[in-house]
Design a protein that fits this description.
binds 3-[O-phosphonopyridoxyl]--amino-benzoic acid, 15 strands, Aspartate Aminotransferase, domain 1, alpha/beta, 459 residues, 2 domains
Length: 459
């Protein structure tokens, strides 16, 4: 590899001179220098100093089969040799997106049988937004175009993704969002449940916010509701089991389409292929990306339910939408191989029956009792640790978000990569983690919490 001719310092200097990073304060980065990851294997990543770090985030919620899978590299190589690219416009197709579409229809929840491809989750959500509005226009109801989304939701970083998302700092930089999108409360019991309110009742109340927004606009004006089954970037916020079935009931009552953003939860994360199956719902449309290829290639698949697909096909007319790389043959070849590996190794069943429950118990047994921890929660292999100053009152450290960064920095120094979002630590490891890997992670996190506590209590 050519980078081996460069020292770490040189790479950092070149990075600072030429590379604008995503979601980054560039002045801060240039002062600190970036951490340069050079290689990875199984559950571990390695930085340019050769330090081994256990990757608790599967890259960025995506490397579900872990690193160093030769089979995926071989699938890409073989496809590049045979046909590196051809488009799927103008009545053309290539074999791998064709076969991947059938496979996805087989894995998807009931009634979801068609696929539209892009290269990222953001693109898939752009497509979803355009498609549901196009659907209602084809149905003769162009005024039914409002989308209900949620505060703190994350749906990507394009203009449509940012508009659908509920992140205020992102909205502020947008200079004009896509019109007709409203945001309702999130199902986050830890901070929003009323004193004495059960989880079940809180879930129903959070779902009622969707109904209120529909009634406020008038059902004939509302196209769809969009949400992540479990909010990811917003802090692994796991809704009560009462939430999604009630949201589905409300959507059906008012003939509002149900859009699930499974960019993080898709492909095994919650212990089913899709979180729709975990929560027992049947959405009209599902956005997926990330773990579809385990991050080895950029690819998104928008899974389109029969109702929308039937109108699109039967009413006809061209849907003026698509990307150069829609159905990229190499990305689709890697996705097919990735799904084959997941099936062959039974990774989804393992999360559901073994590592998911073990992870939940390990967090409870080894992390929840720590003085800095207000709550731990998890579903499948997706977890969160709330950092608080005071367990009983849930008081946070100030300034907001600083304590979680302290924990994260200690964790990385302990050889444990996890993410801090606000005052919440997040875990979303590769699905290849075993009970032993979970024990190792908990040990390192507990140590990081102790070290952070010593720092934070000094202040
Ligand atoms: N939807 C969801 C639910 C996501 O998590 C996207 C859409 C957009 O996907 P692309 O491929 O366009 O990035 C995402 C992406 C974080 C973080 O800080 C999370 C994401 C991306 C970047 C950072 O946790 N999720």
């Amino acid at each position: 590899m050519t980078y081996q001719n460069y020292s770490l310092k040189q790479l950092q200097q070149i990075d600072a001179a030429h590379h604008l990073h995503p979601f980054t304060d560039h002045r801060e980065l240039r002062e600190a220098g970036s951490r340069i990851i050079t290689h990875a294997n199984g559950p571990f990543i390695y930085d340019a100093d050769g330090t081994e770090i256990l990757d608790g985030m599967a890259g960025l919620w995506c490397v579900n089969v872990g690193y160093g899978r030769d089979e995926l590299a071989d699938a890409a190589y073989a496809q590049m040799k045979e046909l590196p690219y051809y488009n799927s416009f103008f009545k053309c197709s290539t074999p791998t997106p064709v076969l991947l579409s059938r496979k996805l229809a087989e894995l998807a929840p009931k009634g979801v049988n068609q696929v539209f491809y892009g290269s990222s989750g953001s693109e898939a959500n752009d497509t979803a937004l355009r498609l549901v509005r196009h659907y209602w226009a084809l149905e003769g109801k162009p005024q039914k175009n409002r989308i209900i989304a949620r505060k703190m939701g994350y749906h990507g970083s394009t203009i449509a993704g940012t508009s659908l998302g509920g992140m205020e700092p992102m909205h502020k930089q947008l200079g004009g969002a896509v019109p007709n999108i409203v945001h309702v409360m999130m199902p986050y019991a830890y901070e929003l449940a009323l004193p004495g309110e059960s989880d079940h009742d809180f879930g129903l109340r959070a779902a009622k916010a969707v109904e209120d927004a529909i009634l406020e606009a008038g059902a004939d004006k509302v196209a769809a509701f969009i949400g992540e089954p479990v909010m990811g970037a917003g802090g692994v916020k796991i809704p009560p089991m009462s939430y999604w079935p009630e949201v589905q009931r409300i959507c059906r009552k008012y003939d509002v389409l149900l859009m699930l953003d499974e960019v993080i939860t898709g492909y095994g994360r919650t212990g089913e292929w899709f979180a729709a199956q975990t929560f027992g719902i049947e959405p009209d449309i599902i956005t997926t990306a990330k773990a579809l290829t385990s991050g080895y290639q950029p690819l998104s698949a928008l899974l389109v339910g029969d109702r929308i697909a039937a109108t699109l096909v039967e009413k006809g007319g061209e849907f003026y939408h698509g990307y150069t790389y829609s159905g990229h043959p190499v990305a689709c070849a890697v996705a097919l191989k990735n799904l084959e590996i997941m099936e062959r190794e039974g990774l989804v069943d393992r999360v559901r029956n073994d590592t998911g429950p073990y992870f939940a118990k390990a967090l409870q047994d080894h992390i929840a009792g720590h003085d800095l921890v207000g709550e731990v929660r998890s579903i499948g292999l997706m977890g969160a640790i709330e950092i608080v100053r005071d367990k009983a009152s849930k008081e946070r450290f100030l300034p907001s978000g600083s304590a979680a960064v302290t924990v994260r920095d200690h964790a990385i120094a302990q050889g444990m990569m996890l993410r801090a979002t606000g005052d919440t630590m997040i875990l979303s490891p590769p699905l290849i983690w075993t009970r032993e890997t979970i024990d190792m992670a908990c040990e390192r996190i507990a140590k990081a919490l102790d070290l952070a506590q010593a720092d934070l209590r000094k202040q």
